[in-house]
Amino acid sequence: MKARQRIIRYSVYRQMFLTFVLLTAIVIAVACGVLYALFSVSTAKEVGRIAESTLRQNSFVSVVIRDQIRNLGDQLLNDSDIIRTMYGKEQDRLQEYRAYSRLRSIQTTFPYVQFIGLYNGFTKQYTNTLGLTAKDEAELIGAIESGSRLYFDFFPRAVSDPLRTKASRNVLTFVLTPGAYPNLPSKSMIVINIDEDYVQRLIGGYKSGNADNLYVINDNGTVMTHTDPSQFMDNLSELPYVQSILGSDADSGYFTTPIDGKKHIVSYVKSDSMNWVFISTSRYDSLLKNMSQLRQWTLFIALTIFALCFVVSVWLTNRTFNPLRNLLDKMTAPQQSKRGAGNLNEFELIDSTFSAITERLSVMESALSVARRADLLRYMKGSQVDMLHKFPVSWASSRFSVVLLEIDGLKEMQLKHSAKTQSAIQYAICNVAQEVLESHVQIKIVIVEEGEIGLLLQLDEPNLPLSLIGLLMEIQSHIRKYFWISLTVGIGRVVSSPEEIRLSYQSAKACTALRFFRGGGQIFEYGDAEDKPEEDSQYPQVEERRLLEAIRAGNSRKAADELEQFVRRLDSGGDYHQSLFHLHQLVTGLYRQFATGSRKEAAHTEMLLEFMKGLPAYETLEGIAEALRDIVTRLCEQPEEATQLQHQELIDSVCARVYSNYPNPDLSLERMAGEVNLSRGYLGKLFKSYKGVSFNDFLNGVRVEEAAKLLQETELPIQTISEKVGIFNTTYFYTLFKKRYRLSPAQFRSRADEYPNLKSED
């Protein structure tokens, strides 16, 4: 009764009890099943061995019959009347009668002999005790005389009985020919025919009581004798199990196989003295006659053991639950004092208690970790923090190195993704880096800023691990594969104390600055930054003067060449900050020369100012060079009317393409520039100068207007409409639509029914 109350009240007790019972039931079921299967298999093997042994005894029948036939043949060959009948060159009826009488006398001595025949090859006379003529045995005689079929063994055949109408006898014929006995005439033979029933009765005496069929076949698969007389002389070589027996090299054996859709045990023994194979087949289920009773006893024993184990499970559950119950009583005491006695879910109680403890510990640990990371970051940026006393336990090694991961194309990523998505991407990069590196080196994520992730490696050796470059390349590959984002990696110098971590960070920062000259997506080590030669740090004034002259002359090709020389001078300097300073000087010179403040030069002024504002955002010198090439090209253009007309036609063509292809989400200024064979920057400037808005604003305006039409004319969902006009980011679509119409898409649809002529507020 006590156990029953615990099962009802306590969830933990109930789970433990059911687990014990279920485990016991599974063990008993598996054990009984395995024992039953083992017994069945062992029984089948034993039956197969018994059947094989019985057949091996049957195989001695062939030896007995062979010896008896040989003795009978020898006795016939020693009889003078039989020899004269076989040797006679002329037919002698009296001699044939004496031979016939002698054959009848000998046949009575051997009851298993059906009849005996003598054939004289000289006179073509066939004498036998059955009354057959040479014509009746023409097939046998002809085959032997032609030499196409010589026999020295038993073979089955059916012989017509001349004394019985439409009756035949199944016999096994044994032929003695000169090939077997040299003293016989070459054209004569003795034919001895054994009763097939006699052979079957003889081997049937050794038949196992379990065998359903017992028969003998020759090596061609022809039945010599069978318990079913109707199958006499049938060829069984097409049966799969017969093919297996004939193709086996073993002299005996047994196996299980389906016959007529039912499982059988087949045993066989091959005779050593003759080409006979003794085969017995027995139905599998008839062999195991007591299996039903065995199953009942197995089930009874299993249930008995289960009942005993059930009692043991109750005892074990009580013993195991008592310590846990004491703990639960302490945990439930405060709650029961408030809520009174009642059933409580122990799992929820334990989970809530430990969750509260874990949450408090996690908050404390998280706050401490954030504080330490903030202090470490401030130290790297220049703060005077006492690293040894600030982090007395954190340093598990004596050498350190900072690795910086900087996102290439940060500006494009910021335009493409929301702030939340950008944070998720940076978090994913941190996870990938930690998962790849932590099995090879101790790592801490110490910097997570906009576009930059810093890793602090704690080393045991004075040099970086040889596998570090390969691991960083693996990180780059994963980020490129899953986010289509390229990473530039800078590896700082190895330092020997926490106070020098700032130096490692600064050297890693200098490494990532090499991206400006060599391009993104690469891995730079501290040695790369040190080895950069400083060939010339002076401002390239000559290249600037030649560039200005080419622009004044309107020679765009020469201006592009001079700009290329200017960029090469900057690249040879190898200093990022100095290169930016020189670029500022160049843009300032262009501004002084071509931004005069007149209305005619207003476009040039705006273009140069925008470039100067966005100059620090460029990640590579090649990107800056491309933008400068567009600027130089525009400065070289002459404001002729023909040029303006061409530009107008070009812009009209671009607008037409926009109206035709706005549903394509991949439509962009870069793609459009490729279609009209212009650079992206130049087409963007040209488009804005003629249309008054940027290409992206114009494209978004077309898409929003088409979306407004669909909102008025259809009942499609807003997300579907957004995708139909080429905007797959529904949040971005809402922002654009509300900016243009001062209404959300849903509000516009509801008001558009009331005011069908509602227009956008440009």
Give the biggest beta sheet: 5 strands, antiparallel
Q: Any guess at the CATH architecture of the largest domain?
A: 2-Layer Sandwich
**Oligomerization:** single chain
CATH topology of the largest domain: Beta-Lactamase
Per DSSP, the total helix count is: 29
Q: Which segments are poorly predicted (pLDDT under 50) over 5 or more consecutive residues?
A: 337-341
Percent of residues in helices comes to 55-70%
**β content, as a range?**
5-15%
- Roughly what is the average pLDDT, rounded to an integer? 76
**Cα end-to-end separation:** 83 Å
Q: Find the count of extended strands (DSSP E, 2+ residues).
A: 15
In the CATH hierarchy, what is the class of the largest domain?
Alpha Beta
Instruction: Give the overall form.
Output: elongated
Strand arrangement within the widest β-sheet reads 2-1-5-4-3
Whole-number total of structural domains: 5
Secondary structure class reads alpha+beta
Whole-number radius of gyration?
Answer: 53 Å
CATH superfamily membership of the largest domain: PAS domain
